[in-house]
Every structure is written in structure tokens, then in C-alpha cells.
Amino acid sequence: MTTLARDRGVVAQTPPRVRHRSLTGYVVMPVILALVCLGLYLYVGSRELDSIEARSLNAASLAKATWEHVQLTAVSTLLTLIVAVPLGILLTRPFTRRIRPYVLTLLTLGQAVPTIAVLVLLAVAFLFLGFQAAVVGLVLYAIIPVLLNTMVGLEQVDESVLEAGRGMGISKFGVLRRLELPLSVPIILAGVRTALVINVGTATLTTYINAGGLGDIIVAGLSTNRVLIQIVGAALTAVLALLIDYLAGIAEDFLRPKGL
């Protein structure tokens, strides 16, 4: 663990050593998730739904909620990367050493605030509702894992490798682009996977600020005391989280530099 992670008391999401997955390793998770969805479909189809359940559990409503959830997760994660990775790079440069502890403390305290509190603050104090407000709340909550993993990944690069690059006449930016970032990719990607899963789960809360998503299904079940609707909404959220984590794992396998 680097000095940064040890001093901050934070355990970075460090990926394990690479083990190339077999074809079976790539197939197992989609098959399991497909079976879960099939079982859920058969279970719901075997029940006699009342008018409230039928309104929430029809194909159009579930597809719309799932698509909204995917959009919330994708956009918030993309913006998290745009903010967190450059900020992580900036905070590992020597000229930011003095302000680094203050920035990290501020961000860590911000993440300690419950997501629902951030969403309510945006809604009540700033009258900020809907998709955009939800994305802001999700970015604020998911930025820490990516930021810390970016910093830890950059700081764990062997100094002798960097010195060799400088000795070959490579500029500071060239060392960052050609050596530091490629060698940090595994740890940064682990942070991205964490942020993705966090966003999938947290996005269910954005229903309270009219942002849609699978939270609409869950809350519809809670407000009408329909357990079946709650189960379907929660199960689809779990399936989506596992599917996105699986896809992120495949991306990690392909984006990881050879030899790492």
C-alpha cells in the first residue's frame, strides 16, 4: 500500500493479479443472470396481478425504468471519470502537495454525507430536480473511489521506471502519458468498477427527486404495500449491478496493459 493510502486510512480497490479467464469464465455470469430474470418472469407470470401490480410490472414500465437507470449510471460514471481522473493526476503532482490533505479531507467528508441528504439539499435548497440533479448527486458520491484509486495507482509506479524515462529524454507529460498512466490502469479501473456498482445502487434513491429509474418500481411497491413489486424492483436492480460489474470486468481485462 502506498504512503497516500496508509496516511489517509483508505484501502484502495487494488485488483488481484491477472488471471486470464477461460470461455467458461466469461459465460457463467450472463447465464446466471439470464436464469434469474427467467425465474422472475415465470414467477410474476404465475401470479394473478391486481390493477396496481399490473400497472407497475408490465413490460413497458419495467423497460422504461431500467433504461432510465442505465442512463443515470452511465452518465454519472462518465462525468465521475472526467472529474476524478484529472483531479487525481493533479493531486499527485509535486506543486499540489501542500493542498492535497485538505482536498482529500473535504471530499471524504462529503462522501460521508448520505446520498439522500445530498439529493434533498439539491431539491429543497436549489429547487434542482430531475435527471440532471440526480447525476450531480451520483457524481458527488462516486468520485472518491476513482480519485483515490487514480492517486494510489500513480504513486505505486516504481520511481526507477520514471527516472529511466526521464533519462531517455522523455518530457514530464510524456512520462505521465507513456509510463505512469498505463502502469496505473489496473488500479484505476478497479476504482471505476467500484463507482459503477455504487451508482447502480444509489440511483434507486433518485426517484425521490423525479429522476426515474428502478427506484420508481421499488417506491411504487412500498407506497402501495405490494411486496411483489418491491421484489421485482430490487431483483432487477441487483441483476443490473451484477451485469454492469461483469461488463466492467471484461473491459478491465481488455484495457489492462499487456504484461500486468
Supply the key terms.
mainly alpha, flat, 260 residues
Description:
The chain is an all-alpha fold and 260 residues long. Helices cover 76% and strands 0% of the residues. The chain is built from 11 helices and no strands. The chain is flat. The model is unreliable at 5-11 (pLDDT under 50).
What is the helical fraction, as a range of percent? over 70%
Number of helices, counting only DSSP H or I runs of 4 residues or more = 11
Residue ranges: pLDDT <50 for 5 or more in a row?
A: 5-11
Largest sheet: none
Shape: flat
Number of strands: 0
Could you tell me the radius of gyration in angstroms?
A: 21 Å
Task: Calculate the mean pLDDT score and round it.
Answer: 83
Distance between the termini: 17 Å
What class, by secondary structure content?
mainly alpha
Strand content: under 5%
Order of helices and strands: HHHHHHHHHHH
